[in-house]
């Protein structure tokens, strides 16, 4: 770095002034560089929103708000008829099912890691769970397509279908025929993918519980479960919910894994073993062969997804921030 | 015995086993996925994978050289653009603007970008770079990766600089060191391991990204170092090959999947070891 | 870091040796991508000239050639003559491919089940829901059909394959034409969408009582049970290279302006009805004349020497008579 030479030059009074000037210049420059970089984060967000709106504009003008509640997706009709209801429904359903699986399991792992697991096992198990988050999403897609999908279609789905056959409501949710491209299969993959996020954040927020509180509860004879339920969870509730929302944000936008196994059907069907589609899967599979209004409609879907995740993530951050303030006090 | 006590004990045991079951459930998936990768991928890994380019369909020789090198180049350039930018931005948040309104807005936006769907980033670069430039290019792919790198590095940089004890800074300032030098020579040095951890994590994150490359860098059958043209890369090559009817392409796809997963996991583990060192110090 | 430096250095050396060759760039349809990349590989080995083909989809390929960012575009749908004139472009068919309906039914052998376009249309419309439907039984009196629900499998991604399939259904089933139409991605009335030919092939082979459509190569490579189809002449044909070529030979290439022929449902007793050609688009007055001449050289080479490679990948080479016409078009229409 240039500092050594600066310091050496600062020998006489004249040089000293020059060196101080150089310092000042360096100082101000550095400040503005960092500030410019920080502001560029805002510019990126602005750029994303702007480019999505520009790309989606023809579709917005053509379909207006009806885009949101139209189920028909007919890109080859003349003019194309496009509606977001199918992908939005699929996005929400897969995310909700994924969260229904991932929340209890993720929290269970977090409790296991913080309260039950012997110390020496904590690091390896914690690492294994965190590595799940590191596996690229295309690998989940391949694995889901070649391994998990066929397994579910041949074993799990026929079982569930026969168990709930004839039962009202549940019978239509778990209806056949089994398929290895389905909403449920995509949900299960999503659940595995977001599991580490819920676990990691829960472990972090569980650690913010003052030991005194837990020790007091154990001291009056509480069992581990009672401590978790009555002390740890209430204390960290906001943070846990924040972590769940963060995971939800991930689930909503996950692309490659879902594209492989959801079966891309824009029709809304009551069975979760039927194919569906999500916003990101629709974009990933149709964008390359699209043009004109069709492409614009896909970008509009992207804009919807961005708005949706923006609100979910914003809510998550606000909740986590509240917990941080609480921990700070 | 007191029935309430019995039921409390019983509930406790049940919950403990459920939690144990949850942990096993999670670990099992990792084991299953890794097993599948090794089972399908190991057979395909040989010397040719690293020395030969992607073959045409139906061939029974060829490798992934162009895709591997393309991935390394694009990841390096993506991180090369994104990491310094993120580092400086994180520096501003942690050192200069700690109590600014602007800082809290940037921090909030950055956290959202951190989890933004990567396909949206792909659409953004498609609209902002690919369309105006009139074609797909490796450079567009690099930029898409850089956009993903930035928020990761911003976040870790801010966190890590926040852990540097203030007395260090105060001591340096008291000696007459200008602010920028305090940051560069004291804070950066103290947080070095943490900062590198952040960059490693960001690298791991983008090395396996597929969605943002689909509409930006695309892929290329041949070896190319030209950033203005399309460039082969592992994730997109895997995506194309695994869905083909040709056995050798599928074999290469699984070999590539194994390589990329091991690389990403190694980066993750490396980052964690480095991060742990920082804590134990 | 040394490792990375070595790799980059090795890369630079490799790049500098190949950088002198003139590279032809093209973009478009995904349907012929395996064939073009195979040709490109052989061509590079023979002449040293590379061809960089980006399979980005027909629509995007047309956009790129109109914008002159590539030397040639490739599309599975021929452009209308008016549109070609407006952009100052020519087009010609470079190769053909065929689709086959594939099923997963216990005890049924390849080629045993017979379909008609109308029947396939009704199945894909969701009107025929069970395998023992009278409409299927009528065409297959000797086959024992199960009383099971049909799982319809189709492509989820936009593709030229879907264009050929839906175009065939539109020509043979009026209701399909009105309700879904033809295109690279259509509004599917029913069915499971799978990604790529591979997704459809995989899903059909895994799902009992399913039906799908794939390029012939995928049916062959995955050993799927394909069906026979009744063609325009009313004859039942099996999917064979001969039947695919008959469809191309019976098409009226000479009478069609700018080779505007869609190959589905062609006349002729031996014609396989679900056949499609893939087209190349180039400018009459190319911006880069040298690159354009190189591209023509490549396509000429492909017509001369590429037939065997095409057949290996289960594509169908253009008949010689058509190739002669195309070569005449090149010399008269492209300014060099």
Automatic annotation (TrEMBL), chain A:
Ranges that cross the membrane: 36-60, 88-113, 125-146, 158-176, 183-203, 298-320
KW Thylakoid (keyword) present: no
Stretches assigned to the ABC transmembrane type-1 domain: 88-316
CDD domains linked: TM_PBP2
Any one GO CC term of the record: plasma membrane
Highest taxon in the source lineage: Bacteria
NCBIfam families membership: phosphate_pstC (TIGR02138)
Function: Part of the binding-protein-dependent transport system for phosphate; probably responsible for the translocation of the substrate across the membrane.
Protein name: Phosphate transport system permease protein
Lineage per the UniProt record: Bacteria, Pseudomonadati, Pseudomonadota, Alphaproteobacteria, Hyphomicrobiales
Automatic annotation (TrEMBL), chain B:
Topology class, membrane: Multi-pass membrane protein
Protein keywords: Cell membrane, Membrane, Phosphate transport, Transmembrane, Transmembrane helix, Transport
Entry's transmembrane regions: 17-47, 67-93, 105-129, 135-154, 186-207, 252-275
Domain ABC transmembrane type-1 stretches: 68-271
Record's subcellular location: Cell inner membrane; Cell membrane
Domain of life of the organism encoding this protein: Bacteria
GO biological process: phosphate ion transmembrane transport
Family: Belongs to the binding-protein-dependent transport system permease family. CysTW subfamily.
Protein name as catalogued: Phosphate transport system permease protein PstA
Organism this protein belongs to: Bradyrhizobium retamae
Automatic annotation (TrEMBL), chain C:
Pfam families: PBP_like_2
Keyword Nucleus among record annotations: no
Domain PBP: 17-303
GO aspect biological process, one term: phosphate ion transmembrane transport
Physiological role: Part of the ABC transporter complex PstSACB involved in phosphate import.
Family in the record: Belongs to the PstS family.
Protein name: Phosphate-binding protein PstS
């Amino acid at each position: 770095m240039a500092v050594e030479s600066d310091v050496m030059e600062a020998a006489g009074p004249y040089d000293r002034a020059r060196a101080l000037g150089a310092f000042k210049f360096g100082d101000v420059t550095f400040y503005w560089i960092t500030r410019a970089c920080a502001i560029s984060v805002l510019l990126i967000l602005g750029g994303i929103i702007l480019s999505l709106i520009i790309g989606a504009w023809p579709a917005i003008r053509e379909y207006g708000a009806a885009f949101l509640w139209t189920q028909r997706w007919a890109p080859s009709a003349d003019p194309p008829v496009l509606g977001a209801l199918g992908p939005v429904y699929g996005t929400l359903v897969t995310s909700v099912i994924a969260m229904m699986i991932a929340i209890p399991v993720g929290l269970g792992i977090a409790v296991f890691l913080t309260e039950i697991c012997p110390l020496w096992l904590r690091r390896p198990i914690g690492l294994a769970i965190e590595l799940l988050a590191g596996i690229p999403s295309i690998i989940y897609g391949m694995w889901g397509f070649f391994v998990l999908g066929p397994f579910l279609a041949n074993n799990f789905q026929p079982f569930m279908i026969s168990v709930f056959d004839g039962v009202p409501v549940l019978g239509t949710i778990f209806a056949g025929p089994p398929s290895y491209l389905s909403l449920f299969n995509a949900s299960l993959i999503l659940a595995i993918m977001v599991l580490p996020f819920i676990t990691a954040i829960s472990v972090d927020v569980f650690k913010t519980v003052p030991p005194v509180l837990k020790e007091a509860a154990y001291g009056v004879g509480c069992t581990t479960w009672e401590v978790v339920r009555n002390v740890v969870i209430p204390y960290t509730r906001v943070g846990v919910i924040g972590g769940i929302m963060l995971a939800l944000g991930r689930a909503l936008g996950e692309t490659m894994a879902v594209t492989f196994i959801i079966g891309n059907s824009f029709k809304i069907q009551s069975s979760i073993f039927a194919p569906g589609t999500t916003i990101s899967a629709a974009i990933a599979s149709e964008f390359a062969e699209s043009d004109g209004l069709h492409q614009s409609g896909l970008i509009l879907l992207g804009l919807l997804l961005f708005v949706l995740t923006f609100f979910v993530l914003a809510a998550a951050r606000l909740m986590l921030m509240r917990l941080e303030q609480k921990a700070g006090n | 015995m007191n029935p309430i006590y019995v039921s409390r004990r019983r509930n406790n045991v049940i919950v403990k086993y459920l939690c144990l079951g949850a942990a096993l459930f999670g670990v099992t998936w990792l084991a299953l996925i890794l097993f599948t990768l090794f089972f399908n991928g190991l057979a395909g890994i040989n010397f040719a994978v690293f020395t030969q380019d992607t073959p045409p369909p139906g061939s029974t020789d060829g490798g992934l050289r162009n895709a591997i090198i393309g991935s390394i180049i694009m990841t390096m350039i993506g991180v090369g653009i994104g990491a310094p930018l993120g580092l400086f931005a994180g520096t501003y948040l942690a050192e200069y603007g700690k109590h600014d309104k602007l800082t809290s807005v940037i921090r909030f936006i950055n956290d959202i970008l951190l989890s933004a769907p990567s396909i949206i980033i792909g659409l953004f670069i498609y609209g902002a770079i690919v369309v105006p430039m009139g074609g797909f290019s490796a450079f567009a792919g690099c930029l898409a990766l850089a956009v993903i790198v930035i928020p990761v590095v911003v976040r870790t940089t801010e966190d890590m600089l926040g852990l540097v004890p203030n007395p260090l800074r105060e001591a340096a300032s008291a000696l007459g060191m200008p602010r920028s030098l305090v940051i560069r020579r004291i804070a950066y040095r103290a947080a070095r391991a943490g900062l590198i951890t952040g960059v490693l994590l960001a690298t791991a994150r983008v090395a396996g990204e597929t969605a943002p490359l689909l509409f930006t860098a695309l892929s290329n059958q041949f070896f190319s170092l030209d950033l203005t043209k399309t460039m082969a890369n592992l994730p997109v090559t895997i995506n194309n090959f695994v869905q083909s009817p040709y056995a050798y392409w599928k074999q290469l796809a699984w070999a590539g999947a194994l390589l990329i997963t091991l690389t990403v996991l190694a980066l993750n583990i490396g980052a964690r070891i480095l991060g742990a060192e920082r804590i134990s110090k | 870091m040394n490792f990375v430096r070595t790799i980059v250095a090795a890369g630079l050396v490799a790049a500098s040796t190949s950088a002198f060759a003139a590279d032809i760039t093209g973009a478009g349809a995904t349907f012929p991508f395996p064939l073009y990349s195979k040709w490109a590989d052989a061509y590079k080995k023979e002449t040293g000239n590379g061809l960089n083909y980006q399979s980005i989809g027909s629509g995007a390929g047309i956009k790129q050639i109109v914008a002159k960012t590539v030397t040639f575009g490739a599309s599975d749908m021929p452009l209308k003559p008016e549109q070609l004139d407006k952009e100052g472009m020519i087009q010609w068919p470079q190769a053909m491919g065929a689709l086959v309906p594939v099923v997963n039914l216990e005890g049924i052998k390849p080629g045993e089940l017979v379909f008609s376009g109308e029947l396939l249309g009704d199945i894909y419309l969701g009107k025929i829901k069970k395998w023992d439907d009278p409409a299927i039984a009528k065409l297959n009196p000797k086959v024992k059909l199960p009383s099971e629900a049909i799982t319809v499998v189709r492509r989820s991604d936009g593709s030229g394959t879907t264009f050929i399939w839906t175009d065939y259904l539109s020509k043979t089933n009026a209701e399909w034409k009105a309700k879904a139409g033809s295109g690279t991605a259509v509004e599917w009335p029913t069915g499971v969408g799978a990604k790529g030919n591979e997704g459809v092939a995989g899903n059909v082979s895994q799902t009992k009582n399913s039906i799908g459509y794939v390029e012939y190569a995928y049916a062959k490579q995955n050993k799927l049970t394909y069906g026979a189809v009744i063609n325009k002449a009313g004859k039942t044909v099996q999917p064979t290279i001969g039947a695919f070529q008959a469809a191309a030979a019976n098409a009226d290439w000479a009478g069609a302006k700018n080779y505007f022929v869609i190959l589905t449902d062609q006349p002729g007793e031996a014609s396989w009805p679900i056949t499609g050609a893939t087209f190349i688009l180039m400018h009459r007055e190319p911006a880069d004349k040298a690159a354009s001449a190189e591209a023509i050289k490549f396509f000429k080479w492909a017509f001369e020497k590429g037939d065997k490679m095409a057949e290996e990948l289960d594509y169908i080479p253009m008949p010689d008579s058509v190739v002669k016409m195309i070569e005449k078009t090149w010399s008269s229409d492209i300014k060099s």
